[in-house]
Amino acid sequence: MSSNVDYLPIFIQFVFVSVFIAGMLALSHYVGPRRHSKNKDASFECGIQIHGNARIPFSVKYFLVAILFVLFDVEVIFLYPWAVNFRELGPEGLWKMAMFMGLLLIGFFYIIKKGALEWE
């Protein structure tokens, strides 16, 4: 059974890192140069001259595809530990992974049928 003393090194490291980050931010604020000019404060993107407002709204489809990519990417990550321990898990592990992959495929076909991946 673990006690709170076991977590003391983690707490000390957390405090040390927090103090270090705060110190570096304060140091860069007070020591760093402050030379503002019109050219330095202007937005710059890959050498293209700016025009118009930078607050152009993105399509919701962009965010939907990004979220779906992350969702299915994270689910595929679960395949690696299963493959490493395949022999130890036996038929029960195979059955559980088959159910997992089945649910994953059902979800994938659902988003295709709903048209979530179409850009039109």
Task: List the keywords.
mainly alpha, 120 residues, Methane Monooxygenase Hydroxylase, Chain G, domain 1
The total domain count is: 1
- According to CATH, what is the class? Mainly Alpha
Structural class assignment: mainly alpha
Mean pLDDT value: 85
Tell me the total number of β-strands: 0
Instruction: Report the order of strands and helices.
Output: HHHHH
How much strand?
Answer: under 5%
Which segments are poorly predicted (pLDDT under 50) over 5 or more consecutive residues? none
Intertermini distance: 57 Å
Helix content: 55-70%
Radius of gyration: 25 Å
Q: Which fold name is given in CATH as the topology?
A: Methane Monooxygenase Hydroxylase, Chain G, domain 1
- Globally, the shape reads flat
CATH-level-2 architecture = Up-down Bundle
The profile of the biggest β sheet is:
none
Tally of individual helices: 5
